[in-house]
Amino acid sequence: EIHIKEPIEKEVNPHLLPGELLLCEASTVYKYMQEDGSNRGTYGKLVCTNFKISFLDDDSASDDNEPQFKNKIVGENDITLQCVDQIYGVYDEKKKLLTGQLRKYPEKLIIYCKDLRVFNFCLRYTKEEEVKRIVSGIVHHSQTPKLLKRLFLFSYASAAPNNTDGRNQTVMFETLEDWRDELERTKGNVKYKAVTTNEGYRVSEKLPLYFVVPICISEENILKYEGRGIPIWCWSCHNGAALLKMSTFPKEQDDSTSQMQKAFLDGIYKTISKPPYELLKLDDLSSSLPSLQDIQTAYTRFKQLFLIDNSTDFWATDVKWFSLLESTNWLEIIRRVLKKAIEVAECLEIQHTNVLLIEESATDLCCVISSLVQVMMDSYSRTKSGFQSLIQKEWVIGGHGFLDRCNHLHKSEKEEAPVFLLLLNCVWQLVQQYPPAFEFTETYLTVLSDSLYVPIFSTFFFNSQHQRDTNKSGESLKTQSGPFRFLTVWDWAVQFDSKAQAFLNNPLYAEKPKPDKSQRKTARFKHQRQLSLPLTQAKPSTKRGFFREETDHLIKNILGKRIGKFINSADEPPNSLREFYDSWHSKPVDYHGLLLPRIDGPEIKVWAQRYLRWIPEAQLHGGGTIATAAKILDLMEEVQSLQVKMDEEHSQAVSGDIHSVPMLRNSARLSSLFPFALLQRQSVKPALPTSTWKDLEDEDDLVKRDDEFVDLSGDML
Q1: Residues 213 and 222: beta-carbon distance below 8 Å
Q2: Most buried of the four, 115, 224, 260, 347, by CB within 10 Å?
Q3: What is the pLDDT averaged over residues 127-146?
Q4: Burial of 709 (0-12, 13-18, 19+ CB in 10 A)
Q5: Which of the 8 DSSP states describes residue 395?
Q6: Residue 13 has pLDDT above 90, yes or no
């Protein structure tokens, strides 16, 4: 039996953005609400435009059912063409991947998205002609290779009025002045200089227009090998030590060329390394970190755990969750990257040594490590504008190939790798370990990851500054001619109204203390740290168990192997690094100083909000971090209102932030995955066959700890 709403009689038209064109549509399409065997769902219209795939039902026409956290560009039932991962058709209950030309059209369509949503559409009740048009249209526009200028980015830029400045205090690093200001901010201008050698891209199209190099590097050296073999400045530490990056020479070279390049590099190194005053450590990331192919393979396996077709599949995988998670190797890659960042931080902070990161193009893992080191060592990078400026500097202007790595044009899967997602996953580990240190929230990181697939912003849709600049010229519908005016993702008002934007800001962010209050604030921070992590000792033991007991039988069997990886592995860090790590963790945290992530064993967690937010079974209704945050905000409100009564003359200044997160009232109705999970999405755990649990009789605790298995982010307090 199929429980359905009646087909809609009134016409529902899609909301089209400027430059958006309707390409094909199909009526009487049935969208399953949840594949739990009941086939509940709703009829509606499925449409495909040059920007998105959208399902329109009668609820789409009314504003009564709007989610509390609404994206103004991409709705709940919208999938941008760049967000489509894979499309499957169901033929006689068998799933088949759909690509290219289709000979036979499916009775059911399953769309897997890069933001991990899964859409199930039934086409049995749709006219045959409409089925052909919509299925072939969706497959063609979302899965086949396309030209850069065919991206919706250009259609939107030519048709949309651009009234926004879009900077929001974010430094874009598009001018020489921006680089000089950054040098001055970090006190790096004593040893380093911003250069204009690449103006007109005469050195290399891969390098930005402006960048920073050591003062002793000449223009002739920069021009000699198109910028290869030149140390490019990333950031300077307070003690004068600097973080640098460098692209390598091609490997296939004849002997004489190799000798010349080696001599050239030796000369360059000597200009930076002047013992005992200036030390230099070279770090070849291609040999010390996983390859891009390994990262892509691990993430592909990892995301399959969250692309759940139905409730039955979820509970089947839940029983063997940890072994499946372990086999993907994704968390291990995150741990290795964080460990590398700690190594670099130790060189800069303790050894006062310059660190030169080396990679073939210096635009992938170099970006990850340099960004992480700055987030860990520079509190400015932990503010919202500082973090956005960091992404602009190291990734957008730094030349990370977003177009290729995200495979936006479907040109080559060989180039695809989730490098930027890897950074966001690593930053999330720090955000959830030290919440008061960050001005932004995990929700901010989640919507930033979603913005990778929204092609109205230029931020994540070019491989380099040169590619963006050369494609800026074009015919604009408004002005008839002139360059395109692309939007930047940092203008959050384009996607969210002010109420929704409040979720991006952390109300518990520890503002930099004023000198006269420093002692009082330091004491309070130490207390906060212990409150926020009740299952972690102040000085973490390297042999800490996953949940509570070190001798726990289940933990020894399931997780012992992984916990031992950091402590007993062949690549165990040198004593000096281990001492640095343990010494830092034994002291109270200074939220505006150096931050070191905890990386032993199970301290590396799954980013639950991003990966579990569309799975109803994984939600804790009225629980999780959001319930705790709601209580804290209530308390803050009460304290602030009392402060108002005590000091009337400052009432406006103090009460300004009282309602900073306006939607957290009545936390009992919220889900642990708020604000993404909708309240009406309830799920009931099915009765599992008794045999499933009999297999686990020896592991009684597994049953008792069901919630802890589901809630991977440590949400349960």
Answers
A1: yes
A2: 347
A3: 95
A4: middle
A5: I
A6: no
